[in-house]
UniProtKB/TrEMBL annotation:
GO molecular function: oxidoreductase activity
Annotated PANTHER family: PUTATIBE OXIDOREDUCTASE, SARCOSINE DEHYDROGENASE-RELATED
InterPro entries assigned: FAD-dep_OxRdtase, FAD/NAD-bd_sf
Domain of life: Bacteria
Gene3D superfamilies xref list: D-Amino Acid Oxidase, subunit A, domain 2, FAD/NAD(P)-binding domain
Known EC number: 1.-.-.-
UniProt keyword annotation of Oxidoreductase present: yes
Assigned GO CC terms: cytoplasm
Entry protein name: FAD-dependent oxidoreductase
A Pfam family this chain is assigned to: DAO
All residue ranges annotated as the FAD dependent oxidoreductase domain in the record: 30-383
Amino acid sequence: MDLKSGYPFWAISNGLMHAFPALQQDTRCDVVVIGGGITGALIAHELVEAGHDVVVVEQRDIGWGSSAASTALLQYEIDTPMSELARRYGEADAALAYTACAEAIPRLGTLAREVRDVGFAKMHSLYYASRRRDVPAMRDELALRRRHGLAVAWLSADALRGDYGIEAPGAILSRLAARMDPYRMANRLFARLERRGTAVFDRSTIHSIEAGSRGVTLRSSDGIRLRAEHVVVAAGYASQQWLKEPVARNRSSYAFVTDPLDPDALQGLADTMVWETARPYLYLRSTADHRLLVGGEDDASDVPALRDARVDRKARKLVTKVARVIPGLRLTPTFAWGGTFAETDDGLPFFGPHAQYGPRVHFAMAYGGNGITYSMLGADLIRALIERRRHRLASLFSFARLERKP
């Protein structure tokens, strides 16, 4: 599955960071993790730290799929507002989803400091009203978040203009967000795991999964067998190929990054990521070297050839949108790219077993705009499921949610 087009910034700035071997012989272990992106890295790390014998298998080079194209906005804010989740599943579950994501941000920061040199930095998150008619619903959202202990503030149109140069009728400002280089984080995590004895294989494709009552057997496209007690399918947006029925919609999103800018020209954008109420939404955030990374212009196609042809035109549209919202900011794309992403109907992820395979095959589908935050939560959840422990998110993030009526 071709997951990206153009020139993703992380792949260009980092290159191929570390050489991992291909799978060459039959192997046994406790857990096989299929997928060598940031989700697989966080899950493998959690399991190894807990004492499990883990083998990782990736069909491309490590981190070279969606992680290389990710814009890595680390937020507790979900694409679906808390107020809408409350209408679907009740206020308690909506608050659980948001507050759990809020707890994941500092945990990501702690791990990033341990791994080191992954471009992690704390930021603020600014969610602005695209239209005046969006303001009443945003005021309700603000009140709901405050009721559940999330630190948020309302910014008026004058404050937005003065602090950020943004022309919008109002915004919710959250102090809890962060940025990171996801490709670098995945590579450095896997390299560290390998140094500590974990087998990490890339350029190795799993062809089949056979789940039984006592274990799971995987076969590679070269006929090599892997036997494990459990399997975690963390193959990003390609994970759905293992299911008979789709559980999310694959789409394409587009982004570009600028050359380094004068920090003074960024105003408040230097430490604040920005996104909007419109769907699909425009978003932007700074990088460690003072570039601006801008994304959006999502469309319903995930056909690689169509995505390839649209990258430059989509980048120009993004430039125009930024100029409309922030009139004093004129941007020139240096690198532009497009990538596949998936979105669920409610904006929540899926973690855990699916009825098609039984309890020993776990899926890690961290879909949505804050996928890395979900992956941090999913690592702990997957570990609990494998160790047969209860977890507060097990029901809300499971496939059983598909049966729940809004």
